[in-house]
Specification:
The protein has 119 residues and is mostly beta strands. The protein contains no helices and 11 strands. It has strands spanning 3-7, 10-13, 18-25, 32-39, 46-51, 58-60, 68-73, 78-83, 92-100, 108-109, 113-118. Strands 2, 4, 5, 6, 9, 10 and 11 form a 7-stranded mixed beta sheet that branches. A 4-stranded antiparallel beta sheet has the order 1-3-8-7, with no helix packed on it. A hairpin with a 7-residue loop joins strand 9 and strand 10. The N and C termini lie far apart (39 Å). The relative contact order is 0.31.
C-alpha cells in the first residue's frame, strides 16, 4: 500500500497561487491513478482533478478548469496541483488520493493540507 503525504498548503490572498505536492512512499505511483480532492467546512469531499498513470489523461472539475493543473513525476513519486487565480471559495482541506489501475474506488489517502484564500 502506498502512503501519501501532502504539502504546500497555506494562506494566500485571492488571485494568488499555490502549488501542492503529494509525495508517495511504500510503492511506486506509476501503478496508480492519482487524484486531488478537497473538503470545505460543512460540505462533502469532492474530486477536483485526477490524472492517469502516465499523465496522458486528466480530468478537472468545472469550478477549477483553466485555473488548476494536475501533473505527476513518476520518477520522483510525486503528484502536483498547481493552483492559480485562487478564490475564497477554494478554501478547503486538500487531499491526495490513489487508486489501483482498473479500480473505481480511491483506496489510499493522504492526511490533507489546509488551503485558505482570503478576500
Amino acid at each position: 500500500q502506498v502512503q501519501l503525504v501532502e504539502s504546500g498548503g497555506g494562506l494566500v490572498q485571492a488571485g494568488g497561487s499555490l502549488r501542492l505536492s503529494c509525495a508517495a512512499s511504500g510503492g511506486t505511483i506509476s501503478n496508480y491513478g492519482m487524484g486531488w480532492f478537497r473538503q470545505a467546512p460543512g460540505k462533502e469531499r469532492e474530486l477536483i482533478a485526477n490524472i492517469n498513470w502516465d499523465g496522458s489523461s486528466r480530468y478537472y472539475r468545472d469550478s477549477v478548469k483553466g485555473r488548476f493543473t494536475i501533473s505527476r513525476d513518476n520518477g520522483k513519486n510525486t503528484v502536483y496541483l498547481q493552483m492559480n487565480s485562487l478564490k475564497p471559495d477554494d478554501t478547503a482541506v486538500y487531499y491526495c488520493a490513489a487508486r489501483t489501475f482498473g479500480k473505481s474506488e480511491w483506496g489510499n489517502w493522504g492526511q490533507g493540507t489546509q488551503v485558505t484564500v482570503s478576500s
